[in-house]
Amino acid sequence: MKEKSLPSYKELERALDKTALKLHPSQVHGLVCGILCGHANGRTAAWEELITGGAESGKTHQLLQEVYDISAKQLDEFLFEFELILPPQADELPHRAEALTLWCQGMLTGLKLAQVQIIDREPGDTTEAIEDLIEIAKMNYEEVVESEEDETAYVELVEYVRTAVTLIYQDAHEKKPSDKTPYSSSQLH
Q1: Do residues 111 and 130 make contact, with C-beta atoms less than 8 angstroms apart?
Q2: What is the rounded end-to-end Cα distance, in angstroms, of the chain?
Q3: pLDDT at 188 > cutoff 80
Q4: HSE-up of 150 (CA within 13 Å, CB side)?
Q5: Would the pLDDT of 29 be above 60?
Q6: 55 vs 61: CA distance, rounded Å
Q7: Is 51 in contact with 19 (CB distance < 8 Å)?
Q8: What are the sequence ranges of the domains in the chain?
Q9: CB neighbours (10 Å) of residue 182?
């Protein structure tokens, strides 16, 4: 049976347009992944209210829950299918680069909400990954041009972010082989 995939960028964008805050789809997915990396247990009310401003339809709730559940499964099972919700390849490169910066900003916000220290950390692979996400979040996407060189750099950055997030998640959720309850309250910081 095929694994269920994340909602598309456009699908999430349409759902978020119906919320009070109208957040960017990539930023929302980054936020969810940051919260998941920080040992968040299965409760969704706090992050969902943050995203929707407290007003969402049943369909929006269902879609956001899918984003959360599928992302959690992909990260927890270290699935190579883990993808970032970003605009489609057909969109202009500066728009996609902006979405990547927003994804990273959302990820960092999610880590902060989950009380993960993102600055003044002990040196290590996770610290380096977080520092790199901070730099990507500050990228000047307005300087990105439609060129083969910038397209290649964008694709490499997306792949790096995917790998970095997986590393951060795995490091935060190191578990013994017998430990099969990734969202238990005993694992919260």
Answers
A1: yes
A2: 35
A3: no
A4: 15
A5: yes
A6: 10
A7: yes
A8: 9-187
A9: 18
